[in-house]
Amino acid sequence: MTAETTETTETTETECDADANPPVRRVSDWDADRLADLADEHETPLYVQDLDRTRENCERLLAAFPDADVRYAVKAHTGRAVLEAVREAGLDAECASAGEVDRALAAGFGGDRLHYTAVNPPDRDLDYVVDVAEREPDLTVTAGAVDTLDRLAERGYDGRLCLRVNPGVGAGHHAKVTTGSAPKFGVPYDRAARVAREAAERFDVVGVHAHAGSGIDPDQLDSHRELVARMGNLARDLTDPAADPLDLEYVDVGGGFGVPYREDAEPLDLPAVAEATREAVGDLAGLALAIEPGRYVVADAGVLLTRVNTVKPTPGGTVVGVDAGMTDLLRPAMYDAYHPIRNLGGADGEPDPADRGTASVAVAGPICETGDSFCTDRALAEPARGDLLAIGVAGAYGYEMANQYNSRPRPAEVALADGEARVVRRRERLADLTTVEREAAGAPETAETEVDR
Ligand SMILES: *Cc1c(COP(=O)(O)O)cnc(C)c1O
Question: Can you list the domains of the chain with their CATH numbers?
Answer without folding.
Answer: 50-297 (3.20.20.10)
